[in-house]
Amino acid sequence: MKLHEYILFGLIGLSASTAGAVCGIGGGVIIKPLLDAFGLLSVEAISFLSGCTVLAMACFSVIKSISSGDSSVDKTIGTPLAVGAAAGGVAGKILFHMVASSFSDRNRVGSVQAVCLLLITIGTLIYTIKKDRIKTHDIKNKGICIIIGFVLGIFSSFLGIGGGPINLVVLFYFFSMDTKTAAQNSLYIILFSQAASLVNSIAAGQIPEFSFLLLAVMVLSGIAGGAIGRKVCKRLSEITVNKLFIILMAEIMMICCYNIYQLS
Fold it and tell me: Could you tell me the keywords of this UniProt record (predicted)?
């Protein structure tokens, strides 16, 4: 890869991780479709790098929140969700490789991911706009939490987005969380699902080809984005975070439409 391509990957990783840390969407939901649009690497490599970037950002953000004592993660709910997400992360990775192996043209896999992400993003945007008029729930049952986490883990791992907007919608609807609380709990879930997905990929020998330097650039951009995002989030009101989230969803939808056209 050329120098300007490394810079491009680093800037995308940094900006997406910053936004992801603020909104709790992980950043992969921005990284994955954007890098697909540039088409510089295979779909498998981009999914893997996106997951590693999100994992680095989530790890930094969660550890920093806990160590500084400002974590709003509800462990009674968040931990069962995270355990389910870890199992779902493994299942989602297996599903991804099953789908990938069924296509002779690997670009088709990217188009499938883009369609799924577009549908999820549209649903998320509609819910976010109308959420004040939607009755929410306050689930406490740990078994149900594990099941919900498992489904979230499958989506995040299969799509290579870390967690994305679907995490927030689920936390809003099933657990009646406000935006900032949902963001921190979402990152906690993402940490477990992406860690499990990475371990599974390494154990199964399913690591795609890319340069180690590029991986280092993406991981460092994820950590830096997590640090910047934490500081920015403290300065923003919940209303502003909601507006930023809606803007990001609209941008992601446009990128997905482009990817569906380009990869189909």
Answer: Cell membrane, Membrane, Transmembrane, Transmembrane helix
